[in-house]
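User: I'm curious whether this sequence folds into something compact or stays loose and floppy. Could you predict its structure so I can see for myself?
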Amino acid sequence: MAATTYERLKLHITPEKFYVEACDDGADDVLIIDRVSTEVTLAVKKDIPPSAVTRPIFGILGTIHLVAGNYLIVITKKTKIGEFFNHVIWKATDFDVLSYKKTMLHLTDIQLQDNKTFLGMINHVLSVDGFYFSTTYDLTHTLQRLSNTSPEFQEMSLLERADQRFVWNCHLLRELSAQPEVHRFALPVLHGFITMHSCSINGKYFDWILISRRSCFRAGVRYYVRGIDSEGHAANFVETEQIVHYNGSQASFVQTRGSIPVFWSQRPNLKYKPRPQINKVANHMDGFQRHFDSQVIIYGKQVIINLVNQKGSEKPLEQAFATMVSSLASGMIRYVAFDFHKECKNMRWDRLGILLDQVAEMQDELSYFLVDASGNVLTNQEGVFRSNCMDCLDRTNVIQSLLARRSLQAQLQRLGVLHVGQKIEEQDEFEKIYKNAWADNANACAKQYAGTGALKTDFTRTGKRTQLGLIKDGWNSLIRYYKNNFSDGFRQDSIDLFLGNYSVDELESHSPLSVPRDLKFLALPIIMVVAFSMCIICLLMAGDTWTETLAYVLFWGVASVGTFLIILYNGKDFVDAPRLVQKEKID
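Assistant: Here's the prediction. I'll summarize afterward.
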């Protein structure tokens, strides 16, 4: 079976069945989904009834079971990102969620409300930008992994050969994956970021590509998913690959990021920066070793760059990480601690050069992947930089962009694009493309994990830290604070439902969504906002006397501060916490 899926599809709908017709040249296959029995079969075009309602679609994301029954999720709009070695890469930009059931009359009012909420969760995940696919290319693997495969691997379907860490619709495709004969309808979808640019330096044209693959293992939102799980999967794990294609030669440099791999948490409690809590009873070494055993198998040597603060609330995590590396005593793992905020305070971002100089020899040792136009592998990447800060977003992205630039400098010189002595930083047109792409990558990863764009992107885009950038960071931090405290419970539930970490059971006697919110969850925050607003209004609209104005201000000021203190003291009672209890996936 060729490693492709059907590119052109039509969906035909009747009251009894969904018919997905393959419209590629020479194709006669039709996937039939029975809306009553949920059975999936393969047929031919003559089996499509003429009475069916027809619409074009661009892929099947999969199926999911909710309270009302099964739903079919299809891609209805796509945008071309570019071409990758003659393979077209697409971004899915719109979806449709279609019910198998023709009516909802069999549901109670509570079930109807629960089903509506679950549908909202699925649509929320689908609304988060960053779903990518190709019908002819395996986006889940790096160039180096794809270069070292067997003939049997090459014959596998895209779904069979995909790296399961990065197939975000793996759970949704479980019914199709069980039937190899329908795999050409099963489209693996990546979540993360992809950008492609045709560039020119010294009159020499090359393609420059940046891919970030977000892991679906231990996936979630900022404060509800930290550290590792018992299998060693790290929160917010992202594999980022930078690729150059010039005159048939291909070069690649891979980096990873992921949460500090011990058992720790940082649950929101209305404080701007909740204190991290390290689990005191967990077997940290077991999870830590599982994590790095898998990383070494996949990537080789590990150079850890830990960017967290080495004082204050982040210090215990830095110490725990350093201790675990020392205790593991593996020659494959090296540890570099760099207090980003301390070293770069007062906007001294030039001091990042200290870190780059410190790891330069290690980077040369890790090297990069390079294959010539004849398919001969000239160099292999022997390991990766594994960078992290607290969120593995802002500080991490800055460092990754600098390490990637240094690797790209070496690659372009070896390929003959850059002359001896030339620097990438001197190539104004390409430098602008490079910086903006890495800033866009930062924003995409941040929105998917923290709910807002990244911080510090002014440095990534311009190479300088600016006052305007600081103001923008302040605004994004404010939005993050609101989302992390008042909407991330819903976001976490949505991801768990989408990935199959929670499975809906309509026979469940007690719905997890039926847990009523305490009135104070809504009442006190509203009182605080009203009181604070009235305080401002009193300042802007003075009374007849200053005494009267002062009295109003004091009254509403005390009301707002008092309410805030009540909320802060019992912060956990007011945040939007997840309500779905994770269950084992149903295969």
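Summary: The two ends are 23 Å apart (CA to CA). Residues 519-585 form one domain.
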